[in-house]
Every structure is written in structure tokens, then in C-alpha cells.
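Morning, I've got a small favour to ask if you have a moment. I've been staring at a protein lately and its backbone has me curious. You're getting the sequence in one-letter code plus the fold written as C-alpha cells. I've dropped the whole record in just underneath, so have a look:
=====
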Amino acid sequence: MTNSELPDSKQGRVDWVIRAPDNTEMRRRYDVWAEQYDKDVGSVEDYSAPGELARAATQHVDPSALIIDAGAGTGLLGAAMKQQGFQNLIALDYSEKMLAVARGKGLYQKLLQCDLSQPTDLEAASADALVTCGTTTQVPCASLREYVRLVRPGGKILFAAVQGTWEDCGYAEIYKSLEEAGKISLLERGEPFQMMPTTEPDFICEIWVMAVHEGVSVPG
């Protein structure tokens, strides 16, 4: 695993990673990209979604809340959340190399390398909220069940979701089962915006805010 695999251009590197053929290969490519990642998409001009999601969180989540950043990567969303006054953050990601970069920034109280489509080591209902940015094309849709397990009843889940991926990547079906079980409901769907203007201008994103409820047991 060497940086020599990385394409020469920023556009090429973004395409190479996000269009990996499967999740195992995507994880490996994120590990390769980790040290270059912030240089490629670390600015608001390159990646607007973290800032948009953090601003939306101020309208729905208390500043003192314990918040999980799912698919945290190098901590771009964590940094945006800190700028908005959120201090109690936990990072989850499947790339240890990306988390190593995030760890060096001192943004998170805890960082955990894990597969979000499987149960994590965190206790059920242990967080007040969960935020996840641009992961609907990156993280298996089964992660939605784990997100609901991790957030206490009355808490919130905020997605920065690429348009179309909710259905195309299987989230819609799982969401429907959770909604029918009384576990989750949609509170707000934000206005669409360009998520990665300089590299993926066709990626249009929306901020979705969901409430977690007591409900019945989460369907498998």
C-alpha cells in the first residue's frame, strides 16, 4: 500500500476512491489517500457538506450533546462541528489511516475503527445525536440500523446525503422498516446544494434530520 497508487490530479484521486468497486477496496483506497485527503477536499470550496451539516445541527442538537460522527474520516465534519460550539464528539470510521489523521487534530474524545454496517462496541442509546456526512455512497445501508441503536430515544440523526443514493444504495427500504416499527421519523429535509463543487459538481446533497423514538425492537 503506497501513495504511488494515487492518481496525479485531485479530480482523479476523488474519482479513484469514491468509485471503488466494493467496500473492502474502498477502505483500502481511503487508507492510501489519508495523508493527501485534507489537501484535496479539506476546504469549504472543495467540500461544502461538513459546514452545511454542522450549521443544521445547531438547530436540532444541544451544544452539550454527546455526538457520534459516523464515517468521520480525517475529521472535517468534526472540525466544522467544533466551530459551531459542539465539544463532545466521538469518531467512527472503517479506515484506521483516516482516523490517525483525525486523531492528530485533537477533535474527538474517542476514535473507534469499525465496520458501521455491523454492531459496534459502543453501548446502545449511548449518544444524544449522530451526524454523518456524504456516507450514503460509502457506507453500507445496514449502518442505519446501528445508528438508530446508538442514539437514545429523543435524539437526532443528521445525514448529509447525496440525492438519489437514499433509494439507490438501499437506505430507503431499511428506513421504511424502522419507521414502521416506530423507531425513527423524518423531521426535516433541507434544500439541495452542491456538495463537492470542484471535483464532483453533479453531486447534489441534502441535509436530512431524523428523530429517534423508543418504538419496538429494531427489525433485522
Remarks:
- The chain has two domains: 3-41, 49-200.
- The chain is about 35% helix and 25% strand.
- The CA atoms of residues 73 and 214 lie 30 Å apart.
- The first helix runs from residue 10 to 18.
